[in-house]
Design brief:
Blueprint (H helix, E strand, L loop, with lengths): L5 E6 L2 E6 L10 H15 L6 E5 L4 E3 L4 H4 L4 H7 L7 H4 L4 E5 L2 E3 L1 H8 L2 E5 L3 E3 L13 H9 L1 H10 L3 E2 H7 L4 E3 L4 H13 L3 H13 L5 H14 L4 H11 L10
Parallel strand pairs: 2-3, 3-5, 4-6, 5-7, 6-8, 7-10
Antiparallel strand pairs: 1-2, 8-9
Helix pairs in contact: 6-7
Bound molecules: hexanoyl-coenzyme A.
InterPro entries: ClpP/crotonase-like_dom_sf, Enoyl-CoA_hyd/isom_CS, Enoyl-CoA_hydra/iso, Enoyl-CoA_hydra_C
Family: Belongs to the enoyl-CoA hydratase/isomerase family.
GO molecular function: enoyl-CoA hydratase activity
Length: about 260
């Protein structure tokens, strides 16, 4: 598949999607988001792929939704086109999706990273929701996901003042899982996917689903959900294999059954 605004490749069991609009700091226009949706769903359906990495350039993961494209939009236009709906496809991918962020992750760029399952940041990463400078607010989940990730105090600070947060602060605040040197960013994300690829795919998919349920429900319901899907894994051959391998002091050979 050839794309105009993203580059795709696979390395081992990892799919890499690189946002590639350097002249606009990877601003997320409709065309780019449509390509991203197509690439994500394609890799999600490919059994050879264990995880998907979304990354950008050293200067920018993405500097936001495309302001020049949004500039002329009208209220009925945005309402009826519902142009952000397409973005949610990221959250419907069943395989782990990792955002490998270097440089700017602003506005919709920060929101895209937060839709992923995990953010790995380069030391030069800068996160922010500066939409308030434009007379708007975050529109792809920023007020919700950022607040859940880093709490009200810092979310209010970032969203109301448009200030950027560096990688160290993002890690301290719980937005980011790991911070690495810029030249190690992709290697670190690939390491995560390699590890995930060695595991039982049903347990990986169910673990992801269970963590995501934590954002949607009460503790009691969430624990009930977890217990149900935990028990369901005892119906898999991989549970027998994983536990037998431990008892026999050998590496498990999972078959995803
Ligand atoms: C369109 C953008 C853009 C954006 C940068 N560019 N961000 N174009 N939409 N979000 C373009 C610039 O216009 C410029 O094009 C080129 O990229 C390089 O940007 P510069 O500003 O010259 O670079 P620099 O001085 O290094 O500053 C980097 C920056 C700044 C701090 C990231 O570009 C910036 O503030 N960008 C906007 C950030 C932002 O407000 N994001 C939120 C957008 S709203 P030319 O042609 O002049 O060279 C949003 C809403 C999401 O995301 C809601 C859900 C959809």
């Amino acid at each position: 598949m050839s794309y105009e605004m993203i580059l795709t490749e696979t390395q081992g069991r990892a799919a890499i999607i690189r946002l590639n609009r350097p002249q606009a700091l990877n601003a997320l226009c409709d065309e780019l988001m449509a390509e991203l949706h197509q690439a994500l769903t394609g890799f999600d359906a490919d059994p050879a792929i264990a995880g998907i990495i979304i990354t950008g350039s050293e200067k920018a993961f993405a500097a936001g939704a495309d302001i020049k494209q949004m500039q002329a939009r009208s209220y009925p236009g945005v309402y009826f086109e519902d142009f952000i709906a397409n973005w949610e496809s990221v959250t419907r991918i069943r395989k782990p999706v990792i955002a490998a962020v270097a440089g700017f992750a602003l506005g919709g760029g920060c929101e895209l990273a937060m839709m992923c399952d995990m953010i790995i940041a380069a030391e030069n990463a800068k996160f922010g929701q500066p939409e308030i400078n434009l007379g708007i607010i975050p529109g792809a989940g920023g007020t919700q996901r950022l607040t859940r990730a880093i709490g009200k105090a810092k979310a209010m600070d970032l969203i109301l003042t448009a200030r950027f947060m560096d990688a160290a602060e993002a890690e301290r605040s719980g937005l980011v899982a790991r911070v690495v040197a810029p030249d190690q960013l992709l290697a670190e994300a690939l390491k995560v996917v390699e590890k995930i690829g060695s595991l039982s795919a049903p347990s990986v998919a169910i673990a992801k689903e269970a963590v995501n349920v934590a954002f949607e429900t009460t503790l009691t319901e969430g624990v009930r959900f977890e217990r149900r899907v935990f028990y369901s894994l005892f119906a898999t051959e991989d549970q027998k294999e994983g536990m037998s391998a431990f008892a026999e002091k050998r590496k498990p050979a999972f078959t995803n059954r």
